[in-house]
Write a structure and sequence with these properties.
The protein is mostly beta strands and 332 residues long. It contains 3 helices and 16 strands. The chain has a 16-stranded antiparallel beta barrel with strand order 1-2-3-4-5-6-7-8-9-10-11-12-13-14-15-16.
Length: 332
């Protein structure tokens, strides 16, 4: 009886804290899209095509003064998948500000895996590492808690469906991430992750993303180690990435390079890969550079880009010329 009354009291306190009389409102509603003229060439010749890369519906708002929501739907991605009917949905969550320093979130959210390449908005990324490309899902359903233990320093825990799951397969990920900084010019996205794969095995990620900001120059330096249980050597399956963006007026001058390695020995007793994202035997160098131009005062509204990139695991030169633009329907 005491537990029952305590539960009612807790539920009552929650309802009161949500301020049920507050009016729901949408603070942002916008569409954004990116299209390119994609060209590629190798020893087999030259190929080109016009492509639509992204087309998204974005909605943000609040149900009460302490309960926010976010939705991002990719309108050019296959909506129905028999294993994941929310395949085209990146964000679909409610976030409750339970206390000034504590927030709780439920729904579909980005995986809390460290590193700025993984964390970046997909429409802003022209090419990815094999690790990011090969995860089955970078957004999944789950719950997470964020605690701001110091100003600008947030520790977050997330329990969610595994990024190595094709959909809803009773496979989970346990993620601990630090969103913070060591100095005003040194920001961090560091995480420790334990992720289940389709064989019910766990793999551990340690991801250390660092962003150094010196006026108009931003430099990312990232390292990720991946260790499946039974792996013979700790530092053998890894990725390192560096990115530079130099802002000059309305222009961004950009370059990014990375290296990924996973030796053939990283398999279990049955010969199955311990890492399901970066295959054993991988030695991949990928790099690229480009320019971005923002003709309007509001940089979010219109962006032109020209980018070259190449990955040694594919062996194709890529060159994109494209445009990204946003239509704001509601912006408060």
């Amino acid at each position: 009886m005491t537990g029952w009354r305590s539960g009612l009291a807790l539920a009552g306190a929650l309802l009161l804290s949500l301020n049920m009389h507050a009016q729901p409102k949408i603070t942002q509603l916008y569409f954004d899209t990116r299209a390119s003229f994609h060209q590629e060439w190798d020893d087999g010749g030259y190929r080109s095509q016009f492509t639509g890369d992204h087309f998204n519906l974005n909605v943000r708002g609040s149900l009460t003064d302490k309960l926010d929501f976010r939705i991002r739907q990719r309108l050019n991605k296959a909506v129905f998948d028999p294993r994941n009917m929310f395949n085209a949905t990146d964000f679909l969550y409610l976030r409750w500000q339970a206390a000034p320093k504590l927030a709780l979130t439920v729904g579909k959210n980005a995986l809390f895996i460290g590193g700025y390449e993984f964390d970046a908005v997909p429409i802003d990324v022209y090419y990815y590492s094999n690790f990011c490309n090969n995860l089955y899902q970078g957004f999944s359903f789950g719950v997470n808690a964020e605690y701001e233990f110091l100003p600008g320093q947030v520790l977050a825990f997330q329990f969610c469906n595994s990024p190595l799951s094709l959909g809803f397969q009773n496979l989970y990920a346990y993620n601990l991430e630090w969103f913070g900084h060591f100095a005003p010019w040194w920001n961090t996205l560091w995480s420790v992750n334990f992720v289940q794969d389709e064989h019910k095995r766990f793999i551990n990620y340690i991801a250390l993303g660092n962003r150094l900001i010196f006026g108009p120059l931003a430099i990312d330096v990232e390292w990720m180690n991946r260790a499946g249980f039974g792996q013979k050597r700790f530092f053998s399956d890894y990725t390192v990435i560096s990115k530079i963006i130099w802002t000059v007026g309305k222009w961004n001058l950009c370059a990014k390079a990375g290296y990924e390695e996973n030796p053939l020995e990283n398999v279990d007793a049955q010969g199955r890969a311990l890492d399901m994202a970066v295959a054993p035997g991988t030695r991949n160098i990928y790099a690229g550079c480009g320019v971005e131009f923002f003709p309007l005062p509001d940089r979010d509204r219109l962006r032109l880009h020209a980018v070259w990139f190449r990955s040694s695991s594919i062996g194709i030169n890529n060159f994109d010329i494209g445009i990204t633009w946003r239509l704001n329907v509601i912006k408060r």
